[in-house]
């Protein structure tokens, strides 16, 4: 009998079904080095498969049976076959980004088999412009999305000539390397205040935050009662009513993925001219794009949409969810102002709602802050519990998160990384997830949706682009 | 609650595990038409996904729960998503047949998720020579291998200009079309006696034969007792002792696939010069190739290897396993003569063993013939039962079958089919399966093995080629 799963990890297995696969992913785009021969990608795959010493996380699979009394345990995969996990894919012609996004959607819409370790890494060639891509997939019971992005970043190099970097699944010589804060955490300067509201937390802190949700999965604790009261009661920081939209329906297991990035400098300039943060500008972009999208579908509600936005905040006294630096993780419910026709008014509404939410978060009790944390980081686990408490629908329409990435160029085996886009988890009632990540002067948007519930998801990319221009015009810098 | 699975289909679900996926497959190679534009394969995929009226077989998935009292039932997939089943794949560079076979091995080594209908169809582009391929995968609980090959053939056309042929999953206007005997059944002439010993049986006859194995799965009936006695006792037609080889070990879920074809005329000429059938020549090729292969690995046993070879034979009185034409299906245990150094001696040994086996089969009682049938067609179900009866190992070393295909050129949407190769099911103790199929003047070999148990499987292709030359020399026609 293997090691038991911690309650949070087990909760993700219990919450998973055919319509809600519980894995996160990432798409990374690379330009191969100038001297790359025709065997470049094949050699990379060979090297990736030749990893001899894998971290236990990547060798174990969940198992339960009568002998485990029905409990999930981690068991080493006695027949671990790295060729199953490390795959060499190619795109059909014409090899545009569209074909790449189609592939990502298909891969992200397929569950990981529980009989094997819960990860895949695909090296994708066949982009007409000669770039290559990786699509990585990890089950949420192993790592949450932020920790997964960090793990992927930890194997990138700042040195174009570095070769032989250990792959994400290699056992590390330096323990805790993947928990080491990324460079961008230390050098927030260049981005100004843009990133100050974002979830920049070491993986171990997220883990302990998630453990709260895990306890909640076991029994209706005070956490759930707090959340439940909050959702019913406008006076608490947790309390919001959201209109029901087409994004808030039961989902299927089919996924669509859309991704694009914009220069951080354009977003920063909008922020400077309007006194807002980059995060506010990101949210205002989403707001305007969603307004156009829902209007086209004749489905824009009169009331504004609300986004659940994970944030970090200084909180010396925060107990469980804090690390040495005193950061805590919470979630702010942001009214997006989709009911407002003017881009500048939407941006102002987002800024005000964000400030209000962060103030409320700062004044919450520890228990309330933890409750927010749990709601923010583990909605898949917490939302069903809220329903058990008689809360008919989630207190928000979608999840928008923003995970900072490296602020300078990174390389992988001499290939320059030119883009990085997270894939996240749509849920019943929350059919769209927008996760952004900054990298090397650009802000990458990853939109993951249920293909059937969220029609024509790709159009949101064009609407996001329209909204950047509209915001530039509105603040007078275009 | 849906329709219950018949006992045979259920037996395949019960027998399946991570190491023994119970699906069959086929690789088909095509030359696109001269006027094919860059969108040719993408258009094919679009059309394939646009099928509106699917046969129920392709819309249902197996389900069991407390409400079905633990029994498997077929249930329509309420969220059927054809994009999950019909896939557009591409090969990584350099796009050789090797990359195609690697892809087939990987796809064949992945189980079908029981929560969805149990089939996939992959359209593969990216072969450097401009050809395209399809890899089809169907669970054995839907169709056995012969019926699956027939289904795939039924959608091919003899007319290069025909377009819009219904795809295998389309509901047929003409009921039973897939059960219609193929052209090659009616025109055995050109192949001479070469195909007379092969399993050419309509799908419904196979179905009733398989039902016997299904009953056996439920309880140790007289069938299993007959088999068990036969295996212990040299006097019965079922009785053989086989040496234990590296092919007869516990397998893993990893698959390797190798495929190649040879001109039928070369095999026919060897048969003419030696008084043997094409089927004998196929078996002698396998014998010589296995001898070389095992010798290289220092693993050739002193005793000859035995192959289980499914055959059909005229048997007016055969009850359950017969169709109107009076054909019955059985299996012959063929001593391959791998202990003999001379190619001509091996060919003669195969011919004698085959004749002897067919004579024995003809003189068996109906119950014995049925037992052979079950053993031949459903080893996955019957072998575990034999073990329950104290039979330590299978009475043969590998399975070699030969399924006739079309004897003239076939087309699919204007693309000329230039090759067809079956992928089959390795089992614990039977790590290698060789299935051949003839098409348009060539004999295609499909070798499916456990990648870990059968090392360097691809080398067998070279050894098969060597053996054709050796046989030509031995019978004096080279």
UniProtKB/TrEMBL annotation, chains A, B:
It is an enzyme of class 2 (transferase). Its EC number is 2.3.1.20. Residues 157-198 are annotated as: Disordered. Pathway: Glycerolipid metabolism; triacylglycerol biosynthesis; Lipid metabolism. GO terms for molecular function: acyltransferase activity. It catalyses: an acyl-CoA + a 1,2-diacyl-sn-glycerol = a triacyl-sn-glycerol + CoA. It holds the Pfam family WS_DGAT_C. InterPro entries: Acyl_transf_WS/DGAT, O-acyltransferase_WSD1-like, O-acyltransferase_WSD1_C, O-acyltransferase_WSD1_N. Residues 170-189 have a biased composition (Basic and acidic residues). Residues 326-471 form the O-acyltransferase WSD1 C-terminal domain. The keyword Ligase does not apply. Residues 6-282 form the O-acyltransferase WSD1-like N-terminal domain. Keywords: Acyltransferase, Glycerol metabolism, Lipid biosynthesis, Lipid metabolism, Transferase. The keyword Transferase applies. SUPFAM superfamilies: CoA-dependent acyltransferases. It comes from the Bacteria. Coiled coil: none annotated. Belongs to the long-chain O-acyltransferase family. PANTHER family: O-ACYLTRANSFERASE (WSD1-LIKE) FAMILY PROTEIN, WAX ESTER SYNTHASE_DIACYLGLYCEROL ACYLTRANSFERASE 4-RELATED. This is Diacylglycerol O-acyltransferase. It comes from Nocardioides imazamoxiresistens. The lineage of its organism: Bacteria, Bacillati, Actinomycetota, Actinomycetes, Propionibacteriales.
């Amino acid at each position: 009998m293997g090691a038991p799963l911690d309650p949070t990890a087990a909760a993700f297995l219990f919450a998973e079904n055919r319509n809600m696969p519980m894995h996160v992913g990432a798409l990374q785009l690379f330009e191969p080095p100038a001297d790359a021969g025709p065997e470049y990608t094949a050699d990379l795959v060979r090297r990736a498969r030749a990893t001899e010493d894998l971290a236990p996380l990547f060798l174990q699979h969940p198992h339960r049976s009568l002998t485990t009394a029905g409990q999930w345990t981690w068991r080493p995969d006695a027949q671990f076959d790295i060729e199953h996990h490390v795959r060499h894919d190619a795109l059909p012609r014409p090899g545009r980004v569209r074909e790449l996004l189609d592939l990502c959607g298909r891969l992200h819409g397929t569950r990981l088999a529980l009989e094997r370790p819960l990860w895949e890494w695909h090296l994708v060639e066949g982009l007409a412009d000669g770039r290559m891509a990786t699509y990585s997939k990890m089950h949420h019971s192993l790592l949450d999305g932020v920790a997964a992005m960090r793990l992927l970043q930890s194997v990138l190099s700042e040195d174009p000539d570095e070769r032989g970097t250990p792959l994400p699944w290699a056992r590390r010589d330096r323990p805790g390397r993947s928990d080491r804060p990324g460079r961008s955490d230390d050098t927030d300067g260049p981005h100004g205040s843009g990133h100050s509201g974002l979830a920049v937390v070491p993986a171990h802190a997220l883990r302990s935050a998630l453990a709260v949700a895990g306890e909640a999965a076991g029994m209706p604790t005070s956490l759930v009662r707090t959340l439940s009261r909050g959702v019913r009661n406008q006076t608490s920081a947790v309390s919001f009513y959201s209109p029901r939209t087409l994004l808030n329906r039961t989902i299927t297991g089919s996924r669509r993925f859309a991704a694009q990035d914009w220069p951080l400098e354009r977003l920063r300039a909008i922020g400077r001219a309007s006194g807002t943060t980059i995060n506010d500008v990101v949210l205002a972009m989403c707001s305007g794009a969603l307004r156009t999208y829902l209007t086209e579908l004749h489905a824009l509600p009169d009331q504004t949409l609300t986004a659940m936005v994970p944030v970090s905040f200084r909180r010396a006294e925060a107990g469980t969810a804090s690390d040495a630096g005193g950061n805590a993780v919470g979630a702010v419910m942001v009214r997006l102002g989709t009911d407002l026709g003017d881009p500048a008014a939407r941006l102002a509404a987002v800024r005000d709602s964000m400030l209000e939410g962060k103030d409320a978060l700062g004044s919450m009790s520890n228990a309330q802050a933890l409750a927010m944390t749990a709601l923010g980081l583990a909605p898949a686990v917490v939302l069903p519990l809220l329903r058990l408490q008689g809360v008919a629908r989630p207190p928000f329409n979608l999840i928008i998160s923003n995970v900072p990435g490296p602020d300078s160029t990174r390389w992988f085996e001499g290939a320059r990384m030119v883009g990085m886009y997270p894939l996240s988890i749509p849920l019943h009632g929350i059919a769209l997830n927008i996760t952004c990540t900054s990298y090397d002067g650009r802000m990458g948007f990853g939109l993951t949706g249920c293909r059937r519930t969220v029609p024509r998801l790709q159009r949101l990319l064009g609407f996001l682009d329209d909204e950047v221009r509209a915001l530039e015009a509105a603040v007078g810098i275009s």
